[in-house]
Amino acid sequence: MKKLLNEWDSFLKEAHCNTGHGNRSEDQNDDGANNFEDVKIAKMKASGMSEKEIREKHPELFEEDVKHPPQYSAPEGSKRDSKLDDARKLYKSGDVESAVRLRQNMEKEERKKKDFKNKPRPDSQKEYRIRMSKEQLIEMIHNTLHEELSKKTEKTLRKKAEDRGLTFGSVKKEYKKGLAAWVSSGSRKGMSQHQWAMARVNSANPSKSWAVVKKSKAKKKK
Question: Is 212 helix (H, G, I), strand (E, B) or coil?
């Protein structure tokens, strides 16, 4: 775990150096801090995106106190709202381990409640409706940091891309955004990180402003 966190620190430093903006990568969103979100904004600016484009595509990078969607069941001032905000702050500071642990414990407690009702998607329940071990938690953090997916997950995503006429790369990117969003923004009660990421893929299409999936030029498989 310590080695994994050292890799995260190295990643932040490398990303900061590669933005090409020098000190301008500091506090890009005027929140009074210099953290991973500032690095992400600086890198997007270095790639040619304007601040307006970044704000439209990634409004969450500029919001310090996020109002959670109704489906998250986290009304302003509630205990769940407070915990989601704490997880977001930890993630922004670069403490991904603590952010993932907090989110995992939150949804684990929700699933323990007697009134919890869950109807997992057929394509996610077999792989992810399991009790999370320490090794699986480490793997989850590693996936969040390095955006690496298992062969089984990639196979599932590739099939979805082919069935829906989307590019595999864009579907994979959508899934990774879901992994990160589960940690930094929240989810429906009781959902695991991978369930949330798969749900994002299933809901995404090129016409939605928040989606990154793209149509494939290849013929759709029948």
Answer: coil
This prediction's pTM? 0.63
Structural domain boundaries, residue 24: 1-64
Do 50 and 125 lie in a common domain?
Answer: no
Domain's final residue, options 44, 64, 84: 64
Angle at 57 between CA 93 and CA 162, to 5 degrees: 105
Average pLDDT over residues 2-22: 48
Residue closest to 85 by CA, chosen among 55, 59, 60, 112? 60
Please tell me whether residues 72 and 32 are part of one structural domain.
Answer: no
CB contact at 8 A, 21 and 44? no
Domain count, the chain: 2
Query: CB–CB of 125/89 below 8 Å?
Result: no
Average pLDDT, the chain: 76
Distance CA 155, CA 160 (A): 9
